[in-house]
Amino acid sequence: MPELSLQKALNLALQHACEDDDRVLIFGEDVGTLGGVFRVTDGLRAKFGEDRVFDTPLAESAIMGMAVGLAMHGWRPVPEIQFDGFSYPAVDQIVNQMARMHYRSRGVLNMPITLRLPSFGGIRAPEHHSESLEALFAHVPGLKVVSPSTPSEGYHLLRQAIADPDPVIFLEPKPRYWQRESFDPTEPVEVLPPGTSRVVREGKHATLVAWGAMVARCKQVAELAAEDGVELEVLDLRWLKPIDTDGLAASVAKTRRAVVVHEAPLTAGLGGEVSALVTERCFGDLRAPVQRVTGYDVPVPSGELEDQYLPSVDRILTAVQTTLEYRRG
Amino acid sequence: MAEVTFPLPDLGEGLISARVLEWLVAEGDWVERNAPLVELETTKSAVEIPSPQSGRVARLHVAEDAELEVGESLVTFTVSDDQAGIVGAVPEERKPQRRVRLTLPED
């Protein structure tokens, strides 16, 4: 079975989506000639031509406005905004147009748009290149939000997102683009349905809930914890809107302790929502309050300072120990 | 390995095309980022373009003396997968360092 990077798996997903459906259009800054800043759209213009894979001016609001117009007329746009932090100029189009068109038209118009957004930190990039916007978009009614953590997840989740009749914000964990995995997209595998989470490591003492780039770090933490005889379950949430409440509750009901890990700042981050859901569903089972390990409440720092900002192995281990030690007063 | 293709950049002044005067590299050459890549002539001036990427030159898309438009493919590099990206650095995969040890509760 070939080894594929996440980057290449996403490229294949786009290629197969274009082959399967003539209405799929790919556009954004540098996606055509250059093949995308992370090579995700590499070679697609040569395969499908300039009418289906094309470069746009540096104007994010125009990219998303055009996506809305094209979707209204039956196309399935897959626009790219080069970096998470660059999506702010397009928020009006995303929130006021794309997210509510289905509702506003009383269900007449669908918005089958997949916005690809290289997201999260970890590559020591300059400012505006390493944001975590999942809470912002998950808060907007009408949008679905998803983030893959591995090449195979990337392939299948992107295919599902493009097939979805609703607008999907697809957050690609850019520090994982170069991660490789044995993966053959032509092999039939069990593909989990949209809106579900995945247990990526079984455990019994506590559940680490994560998504995107933080799944890999939580897997590292679980390996270290195992050295100490602590078996941590790692739940990859995958879909951040809608959240798989049943999967979340099932895992926490089993382990009875939960630590939510994300890169976004703590205050009003998605970890608060996950924590509330766990508390609503598992209050009687919980042996400790849900812990959150997150980025700090500061603007995402650039360059090497990112390393200090992102949840570290030790910060996560400390939160785990806090839940293990907790005693009701 | 991955391939990265660079198009003719917009050289400013509203120019829409340029002519290749001289390639300063050959196919198969290893080029460092910022090293001289090609000399181009526009209607305004002759300019030397530095390489935007380090890598091995896989293909020169245009012959010397030929004209190409802004946005058309100029050169393709072969780069290792962990270089293929324009912004930021590929995170190192290494065993995580830890200071915190865990202890299970007694009950």
General description of the model:
The complex is a heterodimer of chains A (329) and B (107). With 329 residues, chain A is α/β, with parallel strands linked by helices. Chain A folds into 2 domains: 3-182, 3-Layer(aba) Sandwich (Rossmann fold); 198-325, Rossmann fold. Chain A is 36% helix and 19% strand. Chain A contains 12 helices and 14 strands. Chain A has helices spanning 6-20, 44-48, 60-72, 91-98, 101-104, 134-138, 151-163, 214-227, 245-255, 270-282, 306-309, 313-325, and strands spanning 3-5, 24-28, 53-55, 76-80, 114-119, 144-146, 168-173, 180-182, 198-201, 206-210, 232-236, 239-241, 258-265, 291-295. Chain A has a 5-stranded mixed β-sheet, with helices on both faces. In chain A, strand 13, helix 10 and strand 14 form a beta-alpha-beta unit. In chain A, helix 1 runs parallel beside helix 7, helix 3 (60-72) packs parallel to helix 4 and helix 9 packs across helix 10. The termini of chain A are far apart. In chain A, 54% of the residues are buried. The mean pLDDT of chain A is 96. With 107 residues, chain B is mainly beta. Chain B has one domain (2-79): Beta Barrel (OB fold (Dihydrolipoamide Acetyltransferase, E2P)), CATH 2.40.50. Chain B is built from no helices and 8 strands. Chain B has strands at 2-7, 17-23, 30-31, 36-41, 46-50, 55-60, 67-69, 73-79. Chain B has a 4-stranded antiparallel β-sheet with strand order 1-8-6-3, with no helix packed on it. Chain B is elongated, with a radius of gyration of 21 Å. The mean pLDDT of chain B is 84. Classes of the chains: A alpha/beta (329), B mainly beta (107). Chain A binds chain B through residues 5, 7, 33-35, 37-39, 42, 55, 83, 122-126, 129-130, 174-175, 177-178, 205, 217, 220-221, 224-225, 228-230, 313-314, 317-318, 320-321, 324-325, and chain B through 2-7, 71-73, 81-82, 84-91, 96-105. Chain B: GO terms for molecular function: acetyltransferase activity; lipoic acid binding. Chain B: Its cofactor is (R)-lipoate. Chain B: Residues 3-78 form the Lipoyl-binding domain. Chain B: This is Pyruvate dehydrogenase E2 component (Dihydrolipoamide acetyltransferase). Chain B: One of its GO terms (cellular component) is cytoplasm. Chain A: InterPro entries: THDP-binding, Transketo_C/PFOR_II, Transketolase-like_Pyr-bd, Transketolase_C.
